[in-house]
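Quick note —
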Amino acid sequence: MRKAVLHLKKSDPAMRSIIERIGACKMQFGEPTFHSLAEAIVYQQLNGKAALTIFKRFAALAGEPLTPAGILKLTPEQLRSVGLSKQKSSYLFDMSERADRGDLDFSRLSEMSDDEVIEHLTQVKGVGVWTAHMFLIFTLRRPNILPVGDFGVRMAMYKHYLEKKAAKNGHGSPHPLKTANSGTPVKKGPKRKIVLPKPEQMEKIAKRWEPYRSIACWYLWQSLDVKTIG
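Predicted structure written out below.
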């Protein structure tokens, strides 16, 4: 990890500023197992506290660690009784059936390329590219993933790499509420529209981070909770 952080600081001044304010990289990893992906499905589109409550109830029914057999023994009604939607229940059953048949094989993932992992995982209903990217970063520990569909990464890229440029170009730059001399209130200018970067623009910004884009993204996520730009 030290090598990755040194590379990021050396190759990108903006990233160096973020790293210096946040400090050491403390990424937490899970195990690349059926349990981890099932947990990711449960957590989709839920806030942390609600997701944890539902997951604990679900795991109490299915057994921990989660297994295809443990989920397949349950009924849709039992899954809904712990707070899982009909849609999420169908995703968990689909994943369990695929794993039970051998179509979904977690033991092979470490040997696959990043693209092959994405293709393998997204065969499951409810597992999109974003979920596959998170699995690559936080369970398979792949160092060079850029989750172009992640809102947090896109927002942080805008904040640290694009916002000043947008203001400089005068795209809806805000006006002060009072003039400097008289203190007379003036009309607010148009609110600046945030235009988040598209995948091509993100790839261009992240080029300098290679081969450690995953670590850079971790710092971007952290930067949304830390004031890194004055």
